[in-house]
Amino acid sequence: MKLWGEIWNCSDTIKKNGRSGQIQCGVDVYGAPNNGIEYYGIQCKCKDNCTKSQLTKKEIDEEIEKAKSFKPQLKVFYFATTAVRDAKIEEYIREKNIESRTNGGFGIDVFSWEDIVYKLKENRDTYNWYINDCQYIDNTDVAVYFQDKVHRVSISPQYYIYSQLDKNRYETKEQKHSIFDHAAFKMPSMAGTIDLSWCEVELTIENIGSSVIHDYMVKLTFESVYPFNIDDDFGGKAKTGVAAISGIALTRYVDVNETFNLVEYRPKQNRLVQTDRSTFSFYIKPETEEQEIQIKWEVKSANYSKSGILVLESKYCYIKRYSKDTIADIDLDADGIIIEPVIKEI
Asked: Could you tell me the superkingdom of the organism this chain comes from (predicted)?
């Protein structure tokens, strides 16, 4: 079955037909090459090599008749046998093939043991599987999640909020005590600070299967009806004017495409053994007070892929301030409200 799955390029959908004792309509294994809509069927015939037993014309006729009742109708019907090649049987199969196709039926062919061995050598994955005596089924699987293994998480961009009432309250206090010097006030230096309106999001990919994953990468696609910004390492960027958060060692392996809202994680050590995990971070700055951002993730490796969805729920965290160091020299908007990112020194 594994060999034909590779030949037909449908290793994920090729199947055995029913179970022992059930009516199988002459078909032991079936599949749709290239995951199309036309089915191919195989009748397996094990023959004793010591007695040099062969397929018989009677067996061939009986199995062909049974295969005619397979639903949906087969496109091609194969005999796969451990018997050695036999010129007379091959001739009979060719005749039955022409007869069937002339009458609008399926194509018919036979593969002897020599043919099967040759096919094995042509198809490397199956060949290596048998040569390495891999008499087990490996299950390749991964999980992608936020911290605490959740698939939905909340983030809280932090902002200072000022209102006309706050400013009036400050001005009244200023007039009464006359102890603040407006001209001397300056915002903290942007060097050595972080902008807490940007939220760090940590993701983990875990190998939960029974096989090693090689040469993998993680692709994230962000979707939201509201605008947002993403970044991998906002240190020293003019648009944010903040320094990088320390301790994010893996961000240098993360690439961001802001135009298409993509994040790609390509770890330097891109081999993930069983039960192992790899964690990386990115940064996001939602541009509306409340929004939900869907993250479509996809893990790709040399011979495996899987996808899923994570969700970020964002809600601004507002901090009201009344002191001289926050109210002085602020021009409120027409509604008497102003919002600014929380800038924290590090």
From this structure: Bacteria
Residue 200 has what pLDDT? Answer: 86
Half-sphere exposure for 253 (CA within 13 Å, toward CB) = 17
Domains of the chain by start residue, with CATH: 2-131 (3.40.1350), 142-345 (2.60.40.10)
Confidence of residue 88 (pLDDT cuts 50, 70, 90): very high
Burial class (CB in 10 A: 0-12, 13-18, 19+), 14: buried
Count Cβ atoms below 10 Å from residue 319 Cβ, excluding itself: 11
Neighbours of 4 (CB within 10 A): 23
Q: Give dist(CA 228, CA 303) in Å, integer.
A: 34
Contact 200, 283 (CB under 8 A): yes
C-alpha 11/C-alpha 65 separation (Å) is 27
Q: What is the mean pLDDT of residues 91-110?
A: 96
Phi and psi at 222, nearest 5°, equal: -100, 140
Residue carrying structure tokens 């706050």: 166
Q: How many residues does the chain have?
A: 346
Identify whether the C-beta of residue 144 lies closer than 8 Å to the C-beta of residue 24. Answer: no
Model pLDDT, residue 175: 39
CA distance 304 to 299: 8
DSSP-based three-state secondary structure for 296: strand
In order of 87, 93, 111, 183, 205, the CA distances from 57 in angstroms are 13, 9, 15, 105, 56
Q: Which residues, other chains included, contact 189 with Cβ-Cβ below 8 Å and sequence gap of 6+? A: none
Tokens of 192: 């050595």
CA dihedral for 260, 299, 237, 201, sign (positive or negative) = positive
| CA–CA separation, 119 and 112 (whole Å) | 11
What is the pLDDT at residue 226? Answer: 57
Assess whether the previous peptide bond of 157 is cis (omega < 30° from 0).
Answer: no
